[in-house]
Design a protein that fits this description.
alpha/beta; 553 residues
Amino acid sequence: MKFATLASASLGALCASSVVAAIDPLTIKGSKWFNSKTGEQFYFKGIAYQPRTGLSGNPDPLADMVGCKRDVAVFKDLGINSIRVYDVDYTKSHDECMKLLEDAGIYLLLDMPSPQYSINRAEPHWDHDTMSHWQAKVDAFAKYPNLVAWIAGNEVANDVETTPSAAFVKAAIRDMKAYLKTKKLTTPVGYADNDDPKIRMNLINFFNCGDEGSRADFYGINTYRWCGDETDFKTSGYEDITKNMTSYTIPSLLTEYGCNLVRPRTFSEVKSLYGTDMGNIFSGGILYEYTEEDNEYGVVKVSFGDSKVEKNSDYDNFKKVLAAVKPQGVKMDSYKASGKDSVCPAASNVWHVKSDVLPPTPSQARCQCMIDSLGCTFKSDKLSTAEGKLVGEVVGNICGATSCDEISVDTAKGMYGDFSACSSLQRSAWAVNKNYENQNGAVCEAGDVETKTVSSPKQDDIKECLNKKDDNGTAGKPSGSGSSSSQDDDKNSSSGSNSKDEDSSDENDSDENDSDDSGSDEDIDEDSDTSSGASAVTAQLSAAVAAALLLAF
C-alpha cells in the first residue's frame, strides 16, 4: 500500500525554514490524493497554462511576472486549484510567481522534459545530458511547497511503432525517483498518455507493474473524446476509460481534456469527472488550455507583456460547471487501499518492449572511461550537423560489417548494450575504434571527419569502465531493471507536449514544452537536432544504428 507525503522541500530545508507554507501538502494513499492536514480527498480542478502569444523562443510563464500577476487573479475567479505547465527555464527565478500561486491555493504539476532534452518517440534514448537537465529542474523547483507532481513524459509512445520509447520513459521515471530520494524529496513522478486504443492498456499496465522504484506514482490520460452536448458518459468512451482504471493501485487523472470540435464548449464532461460516474476512480483533471492560441483551445486571450485579459464563452461555461461540482470523496483515515499492481505486458506485435528489463541508468563516468580507453577517436569533442550526418553513415557501415551490440538497443528483447546510454558522439567513437581494432590498428578514420590515434590510452581495460558509478551514485555493471512480471499473451494489447498543436515526434516538440536548458555539456553544435539523441532500436544491424546517429547529430 502506498502512503507517501508529497513534500517539495527536503526535511532539512523544512526544519531550517521559519516560513509557514500557505498551502497544505498533499498525500498519496493507494489510488487517491488527500490533503494531509484535513484528511479530505483531493481532486485536481486544473487548467493547462502555457501562454505563447507575443513570445519568441521557449516560453516560461512562471518567470513572467506581468503575466503571472495578471493570470493568478483570473485563476482565483475561475475557481481552479491547480495548473499544469509544460515549459520553464530552470535558470530563471520563479520565486515571486510561485508564491502568488501558493497564496492563491494553486498547485503546480510540472513536466520534466524540455524541447532539447526529452525522449524522442521515434529514436528513444536516455543519457547523461538529458538526465542532468531534468535533475537541474528538480533542484530549481524543489523548494516550492505547491509543486505537487512531476510529469516525466507526455504522449511519448503514441502508436504501436513508438512503443519502444515507453521503456526509456520508465527508465527515466526510475532514475528521477531515485534522484529525488537522494535529495530527501517525495514529490511523485507520473506519466501522461495519449489514449490510443491499440496501446492504451499496455501503457496503463506497464507504468504500474514491477518494483515500486520504477513504477509511476500516478497516471495521466490526455483524452479529447467528449465533444459537445450530444456526447455523454457512455457514447464518449469515458465509461470505458473509467472501467480501465477501476482496479488501478496508483492515482489516475485526466492530464488533458476538453474537445474543441464543438464551440463554444459547454464542458458537460465535468459533471461526470467529478461526480458519481468517475469521482470514485479519478482524481479530477486538467482542462486544456488557459490561453487561446492558434489551436483554439483557450478560455482567455492574452499577450506577453500586456496585463489585459479577454475572456470568451468557454471561460464563462467552464467557471459555471466547475463551481457546480462538489466531489465528496472519502476521508483518508477511513480509506483502505485495495487492488494489486498491474501485470507487465509481454512483448508482442503491438508492444515492442520486454517489460521486465529497462534501459540502464546513465553514467557520465562510465562513458568517459570508455572514451579514455580508445586507441582511435575523433579529434574534436564537438561535431557540426554535417559532420554528424557523415559519422552516422560511417557508423552504419561499420555496424553492418561487425557487431555493435555494446552501443545498441533492442527493447523487444530487453537488450541494452553496456555503452548504449552514452551520447551519440561517444557511441560513434566506440564504433570507429571498433573498426580500427578490426583492422589491427592499420586505419583510424571516419570518412571526412577528422580522427586521431592515441598511443597510450588513459584507461587500459574498457571492462573496468563497467564498474564506474552511474549518475545516481550506484556502482556496478550497467543494467536495466524495474519490472518483475510479464504476461504470456497479448490479451490487453488492444488498449493505449502537448500534442494539440501538431503531431510532434517526441514528448516535447509542440509549443507546450519545457524550456531550452542552458549550461549543457552537449557534444553537438547548437544547430543540430539535440532533442533526438538516440540509440539504435535493433541490436544487430547498420540501418538502425545509422538512422539513430543521424537523428542524434
